Amino acid sequence: MCGIDTLHLSLQDYEIAPGALLDVQPSTFNAATNEKRGDYPLWTADGETFTGARAYVNADHWNVTVQPRGEHAPLSPACLVSFSAGKLVTGSNYEPADFATVKAASKLIESELRSVGIKTNIETAKITRLDACRNLAMDEPFKAYHPALKILRVTRAESFDYGTTYLIKNGVHQTCFYDKRIEMKRKKRNLEGLPANCLRVERRLMTGKKIRDVLGFGTVGELLEGFEQVPLAYKSALKKQVFKHSPEEIHTLTAREIGAQLEQFKARGRRYYVRDYFFAEGVAARSGDMDAVMLAVSNLTESRATQARLRRQIEIAQVDALSLRKENGSRRTLGELYRELEKKSLA
User: Fold this and answer.
1) Are 46 and 117 in contact (CB under 8 A)?
2) Helices (H) then strands (E): counts for the chain
3) Residue 127: which of 192, 26, 216, 220 has the closest Cα?
4) Is residue 79 within 8 Å of 14, Cβ to Cβ?
5) Burial environment of residue 72 by CB neighbours within 10 A (0 to 12, 13 to 18, 19 or more)
6) Can you say how many angstroms the Cα of residue 329 is from the centroid of all Cα atoms in its chain?
């Protein structure tokens, strides 16, 4: 299921009450002159204006910051809210938030803000970041898909490989693939029931303008009315901008990979290097059942000499199979890995 994880909001209609439970970060000042730097009016309540660099609340599952909109608008503070919709409602962000969860999160964040002294109509808030995501149960560990991830190309975007995270980004959108189990383990979350190889895909829209351009809306109220656009836009973006290689291109890349492996076998001076290559591939495919393979060989013939010869051939193929295992730990071709990643990301 494709749903929502992170939301960043800019409140448009809000009021901060007297005695609001916000921490104010003081501005810096020059020790010699006592001149304040970066001291801005943040909000006014009962005729008193509170100033500072910013004010904030960091709760367990949400954050709010009151700060100047920028150097050119120091007298126009912004009230910015961020949270994970699923984590806010259920305590965990593992499952992408569906419509019901996002609706519940919008009501809950409005109540939470009110509890610290910020009154607002959350449905008028502008969305300044929206992360759509889905979890994939993969056939192999995250590392195995590095070759497939590295051939993904997005126009006017850079790629960053962090080992258990692969990020493609520019200033307005990001596509992120990462090992969800590793992330949850790092944060000491409960892993019970999670797939052994859980890969998370996130499509992040990083500005209000990009959100409106892609989804056709820009506020929380409009999100609740047009939620069905989120999974549609997620799938469309991945298909058109990320998984752009044609079957012919993947076929060519796979052929090059197999060709390079055949060259390795040919370089060993063997007469039947093509046969030896595919024999090694077959042994690699049965690597988890070698005891059963050896038993089957023993049952083929009563001749001990023949049994010994066949076992020796299999042992040589096992050594050859080790040379087929790539740095990513997988014996599957680039094409197989790419097609699995594409199919499950777009399902």
Assistant:
1) no
2) 12, 16
3) 220
4) yes
5) exposed
6) 21
The amino acid present at 195, given as its one-letter code, is: P
Q: Each residue of 140-194: pLDDT tens digit?
A: 999 999 989 988 978 889 999 999 999 999 999 999 999 999 999 998 888 888 8
State pTM to two decimals. 0.82
DSSP-assigned letter for residue 250: H
- The answer to whether 175 and 204 have CB atoms below 8 angstroms apart is yes
* Structural contact between residues 5 and 131, judged by C-beta atoms closer than 8 angstroms: yes
What type of residue sits at position 320? D
Between CA 190 and CA 203 the distance in angstroms is 25
Query: What is the total residue count of the chain?
Result: 347
Dist. CA 157–CA 162, nearest whole Å: 16
Tens digit of each residue's pLDDT (9 = 90 or more) over 76-124: 799 999 999 999 999 999 999 999 999 999 999 999 999 999 999 999 9
Calculate the alpha carbon distances from 41 to 55, 67, 73, 115, 217 in Å. Answer: 10, 9, 11, 22, 31
Q: How far lies 67's CA from each of 38, 76, 231, 301, in Å? A: 11, 9, 33, 82
Q: 41: which strand partners? A: 51
Q: Annotate 59-79 with DSSP letters as a single string.
A: -SSEEEEEEES-TT-TTSEEE
- Angle (nearest 5°) at CA 206 between 205 and 212: 60
Asked if 100 and 108 touch (Cβ cutoff 8 Å), the reply is no
Q: How far is CA 173 from the centre of its chain?
A: 13
